[in-house]
Amino acid sequence: MSAHLRTALSLAARGVPVLPLRVGKVPFGNCPACRKNACGGRPNMKTPGPCTCPRPCHAWAAATTDPATLTGPAWSSSWTQAASVAYHPGGIGLTVVDLDHADAVAWACRALPATRTVSTTRGEHWIYRGAMGSVNAVRDGVDIKSTMVYARWLGPGTGTMTTLPDTVRALIVKKPSPVRPVTVTVPAGGGECRHRTPAYLERGIAMAEQRISAATSGVHATVYRTFLAVLSAHGRCGCLTDSHAARLFAAAQTKGESARHCTDAWSNARTALGM
């Protein structure tokens, strides 16, 4: 039995959902039929695809406390190749503030309440009791890892774990990440605005924000479809502005989407519409 599998089984016995990681912190699929996202899961594996496995088999969703799954045939060879063990913080009600370099650690020491800390290759993980949405790059060198993500297991750490403070929760809603300027194509024929009043556009943006915020699964697909609908209705007449796009990006990032995925979804929607 490999050392990583022993670690995983020990954590699972304490109720921590775990999975193996390859070199590069990349997860193994635990279902041969769904490897390489054959079932339609997202490339970053945050959202499981519509597979028919006994349980979802993508990254954080594959994390399990079941020893039969951990030692079963789907992962039998994975543990011998594994470079590390990962766990799902949100699955046990925890949030990891991932501090990627010394400046980020120094900021945390000034801005955040003390809690349990774990040393990483370049910085530290600060671990709090309480789950929240996960967002990367909330500031330079700082990621939030909780629900719908995995974090590497690097040991129990030191210090007393404290309750997740509002200062950490506020990091994902304080200010949206910068968005790429919106460029719309005015169609031939003058592109006359067909909207009756500015309130029509405002209602459309508000409804789009609500649709994204209400998503409980398939967030990435919901964001793309919403962007597509907004651009289809409002993208050709010149009424849509950067501030409207920023509101949509902020709603998506609050649900765990990264700025890059928002930009990609926006660009793909524009391409699909021939804009």
Walk me through what this model shows:
The chain is an alpha+beta fold. Helix content is 33%, strand content 15%. The chain has nine helices and ten strands. The strands form two sheets. Strands 4, 5, 6, 7, 8 and 10 form a six-stranded mixed β-sheet that branches. A hairpin with a 4-residue loop joins β5 and β6. α6 runs parallel beside α8. The longest helix has 16 residues, at 198-213. The chain is globular, with a radius of gyration of 21 Å. The relative contact order is 0.11. Mean pLDDT is 81; it is low at 42-49 and 176-191.
Query: Which structural class do the helices and strands define?
Result: alpha+beta
Radius of gyration: 21 Å
| Unreliable stretches covering 5 or more consecutive residues | 42-49, 176-191
The number of E-state strands comes to 10
What global shape is seen? globular
Helix content: 25-40%
Strand content: 5-15%
CA-to-CA gap between the ends?
A: 55 Å
Quick overview of this protein structure:
33% of the residues lie in helices and 15% in strands. It has helices spanning 3-13, 67-70, 78-81, 102-111, 166-169, 198-213, 219-234, 242-254, 259-272, and strands at 18-22, 26-27, 84-87, 94-99, 116-119, 124-129, 135-139, 142-145, 151-152, 162-163. Strands 4, 5, 6, 7, 8 and 10 form a 6-stranded mixed β-sheet that branches. Strands 2-1-3-9 form a 4-stranded antiparallel β-sheet.
Question: What would the keywords be for this entry?
Answer:
4-stranded antiparallel β-sheet; 9 helices; 6-stranded mixed β-sheet; alpha+beta; 275 residues; 33% helix; single chain; globular
